[in-house]
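tl;dr need the bound structure. longer version: we got a ligand (S-adenosylmethionine) that a collaborator sent over and nobodys looked at where it sits. i said id run it. heres the input, straight from their email, havent touched it
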Amino acid sequence: MPPGKPQERPSVGKPKCLNQKPKKPVIILLDVGFEDAQKLVSFARKKSHRNKRFMGVEWTKQENLRTRYHNLKLTYGDALSKLKRLPAASVKIITADFLFTEFKIGGKESSDFGWRRASVETAYEKQRVNVMKQVARVLLPNGRFIVTEYAENASITVRLLKDAGFEVYSVPLKESEVRGTKFMEMILDRLKKHPEEKREFWPIKITARKKGA
Ligand SMILES: C[S@@+](CC[C@H](N)C(=O)[O-])C[C@H]1O[C@@H](n2cnc3c(N)ncnc32)[C@H](O)[C@@H]1O
């Protein structure tokens, strides 16, 4: 051996495969904008779902809401940044009931901008599309993004989902489906009292499938 050159020693660390973190199981359902989390908690509590993984993302903190269950993790923060942290192809179904209707950037809705609303609308549209693109990234092949929207907003959301690369179809919810959360029940109550508003506010279920999956 030439003088001065230290002899290379074989690594004595753990074998590479033992250093790798075990892969987490896929998330079966991720709800974005869970508000009171009624839907997620009821799914996660089903006996047959005991060994499945659920997750939620919401901007607004809810008082006294338990955020950790053995199979459900509720997180607070911005939808786009939370989605960016998830690995690609790691979620089976993502739901967003009225997320895009009450969509926030930095905690503010576009309507908070009052007379300047029109000038910020493009930024809100872009951010919605960015969220949709992240959804496409984290969905498994054949995964679905299921979005509920008021009838009057459904066509815009369908257009943005198509722009984000999804194959999209939509149907009005059946009356028996307009339930399960406080928000849905509030809508149903309102529309029973004001049936003339059904054309604008009846909830539409939009199903978006990643193209080529
Ligand atoms: C109409 S509420 C959702 C109701 C709930 N999904 C249900 O059906 O009962 C919309 C929720 O989306 C949340 N939200 C809006 N923009 C968000 C964003 N960028 N990141 C995270 N949550 C957001 C709001 O804070 C709000 O709680």
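gonna send this back to them w/ a short note. The longest strand covers residues 139-150.
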